[in-house]
Amino acid sequence: MAEPSSSFHLPVLLGPIVEAAAGARRAVDATLGGGGHAEALRGAGDEILGIDRDPDAIAFSRARLGSEGIRYLQAAYESPEALEAVAAFHPEFVLLDLGVSSRQLDETGRGFTFRPGAPLDMRMEGQGATAADLLNRADGEALERMFAEYGDERRARRLAREIVRRRERTPFAVSDDLVNAIRATLGPRSGPSEFARLFQAVRIAVNDELRGLSRALPAFRDALEPGGRLGVITYHSGEDRLVKLAFREWASACVCPPHLPVCTCRGRALGRLEPRKPIVPTDEEIASNPRARSARLRIFRVDDAP
């Protein structure tokens, strides 16, 4: 398969994705982003369905990739519209890359970055409550849960209290406001790794990403043709745990509670993990694309026959 022609967007774990999709005649890139994965998949002559909830991502990829061999759908991948389109497409490979694209991160106005002066927005579709709205309106317990569950932050309660204290004086509006609250909680030596992790937690909450992922995974599995593969790239422990548990259950012949004397569930595995452990970037990839450092790819192959 062809390598992407643009260096603007560096697709993560491209080699393993291309290998997993080998032989697929129809592939879905359900998180199109900058189009790097879709471009590589199309290079083998695959028919591609590219989905993204971000209208800017659709416009960017359409201008970059054109329309030959690829169709586009602007929708959240977990939406009924997207799930219906994927089922009708009868794919043999589906990819979910749950990270924010480099293009989105590099556009300060989108508010995904912790660069100074960036607005606290983080909405994928430009609709609904912004990150600033969330930080200014959520109560302390909700903020604590957000940073603990989505950001793996041990001092989530302290950070939530700091945010509540600061917003009483001045509402949160730009990235500096959250960065300063993080530094006040974690200490002045906290830096980009802490900012990235906690900004990501806010982004996940703003876009309700984990609930959408839970809804989409079984739908994508069921849409695959026999022998097809579902690949999911995660960047956060909560996302990865959700995918790992789903794939593990699907690969189990029995999912009945342990106390039941007789199996009453489906009684068969739906497929298998390929490979059993997640695929992570090489040192060389991380050196060329530091944003790939937390990526983990899990692949599930559905059975050839029901």
Q: What descriptive keywords fit this protein?
A:
306 residues; alpha/beta; Rossmann fold; DNA polymerase, domain 1; 2 domains; seven-stranded mixed sheet; 7 strands
Number of helices: 13
Fraction of residues in β-strands: 5-15%
Report the uncertain regions: 1-8
CATH topology of the largest domain: Rossmann fold
Give the SSE order as H and E letters. Answer: HEHEHEHEHHHHHHHEHEHE
What's the Cα radius of gyration?
A: 20 Å
Side by side, the strands of the main sheet go: 3-2-1-4-5-7-6
Roughly how much helix do the residues carry, as a percent range?
40-55%
CATH class of the largest domain: Alpha Beta
Distance N to C terminus? 30 Å
CATH superfamily of the largest domain: Vaccinia Virus protein VP39
> What is the chains' assembly state?
single chain
Q: What's the number of domains?
A: 2
Tally of DSSP β-strands: 7
Mean pLDDT: 89
CATH architecture of the largest domain: 3-Layer(aba) Sandwich
Largest sheet, if any?
Answer: 7 strands, mixed
Structure notes:
The chain has two domains: 14-104 and 209-302, Rossmann fold (3-Layer(aba) Sandwich); 125-206, Orthogonal Bundle (DNA polymerase, domain 1), CATH 1.10.150. Helix content is 44%, strand content 12%. The protein is built from 13 helices and seven strands. Strands 3-2-1-4-5-7-6 form a seven-stranded mixed sheet, with helices on both faces. The longest helix has 15 residues, at 192-206. The relative contact order is 0.13. Residues 1-8 have low confidence and may be disordered.
